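Handout, page 2. Input:
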Amino acid sequence: MSKYPGHTDGYQIAYSTDGGYTFTKYAQNPVISINSTQFRDPKVIWYPPTQQWVLVIAYAQEFTIGFYTSPNLTTWTHVSNFSNYGLLGLQYECPNLVQIPMLSNISIENPLDPSNFASTDMYILQISINPGAPLGGSISETFPGTFNGTHFTPVDQATRINDFGKDNYAGQFFYNIPPISPQVSIAWASNWQYAQVVPTGELENFRSAMSLARYNVLANTSRADYTLVSLPYDLSPLYTTTSSLTNSSSLANSSLLYDYSSTVPSGALTFNMTVTSIPLKNASGTANFTFMSSVTGESIRGGFYLGGDTPFFLNRGAIRGFDNPFFTDKFSTNNLINSDTQTFRLQVVIDRSILEVFLDNGLRSATTTFFAEGMLDTLIISTAGLSPGVQVAADVYGLDR
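Output:
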């Protein structure tokens, strides 16, 4: 069964009898119609307790998500609305409703261990807005709550933005994943402020890309309940080698430089950095990374300050292949040190023109695109000014495309 908006003709369906190779439009389309071009972006899930299909759909410029139910996908009943929550922007787009597990403990080294999953009674409603993001253009926001088959009730009035970068929009969740398992999503890695004018190769004839697929769960943290935790889908099948390309277990107040120009033809890498034994008071120092081109000198970099309000930053301003007044070059967030573990964890994934970062087991994440004149081929991981006793380890893996 396929579902699609029909402009002013409303919401329509088509069905397949050959496993999805061909589709036939339902003769009685549209199955829902309100005679509006701004009634769009349908998403349908199955709700087992009532044996009903549930549709979430955007009344885009009314800042409303409508909920409809159906026993058969052809006859629909409007049951509730979710209106005027969070950042409004110009319009609501691309809603998703998904049941999602809670973690018992976000602080453990492998939080996605199945034994760490708790309640599956929670849902998230994800809404994308464009324009109106804090950094400009498009962004997605998530509302955790409960769902009874007809009404979604958020746990609070907080606005939770999915990504602190500028290039992660309109993420969609995959179907048929058990609710006790991490839910998997993928997003459009761009921003409507410049998506139609970024560079493209002569032989490519397309713009934009998709983000990494991500595992998603909810977790209560020391400062905020029901935080959306996002981590990359398992990348190990893409490793170019069974062991790391380079690693260090003694990076405190030191640096690691790795030239991957000849060892990773794809130019795609991932690295993990773990900082341990961080003092709970008066911590100091920085942990930084830089990807650079040995030919053009361009670079994209990021880093974490262990003192003060513990900010983390990204900077794509030293990449010269694209210039646009809306192509913001710097991003930041704060990331408090976990008082239980006194540890900071960072995972970074880079491809030819996209970089994604995941802080502290996915409590914070960011997606940023970049368009370099020269291939990035050198990685530098460094720390400086760390308090006595702080330990730092890192490992680097190449990725096949």
